[in-house]
Amino acid sequence: MNWRFQGKRQRVNLSRYAAQGQTLVQELSYEFAEDDLIEDARQRLKDTELNDWFKWRDDNLELVMDFLKASPSNRDRYKKFKIEERSLLVLATLQCAMEGAAFLDEVNMATLEPGRSYRAMLHSAALAHHYMIRADIPYWPYTNDGRISNTGFWDDDAPDDDEL
What is the pTM (predicted TM-score) of this model? Predict the structure, then answer.
């Protein structure tokens, strides 16, 4: 791909997208809690391992991504989202939204702009990736060691009222 830049180069600021991504994460968190999907997801995942959960996400990636970009009214309206495993769909979408917001945040913090040497660009990209994969994204109901947690969805990191 050949990029041609005219005039002054400007760094793309992704902070607005990252912030709006966090808003979508909160929206999906509330949908997951308000629709009583938490217990259903826990029951469906209780006998599975974390790798099985990631396989479910991979197998349903197109549906999860469609759900992610749908507005709240469209998520309620469209038949393709009214599946038996809706709790898993909402949970997978919530986790993907967290991953996407973390990605945008880290890429925004990195100095990824045209005109730098490929070594400097690779350095910045590697650092962004390093911090992104270490982002604190909870894969509830699994613990860090891949076991099923006995805690509730909000028990570990419930948002404070002033954070909402």
Answer: 0.77
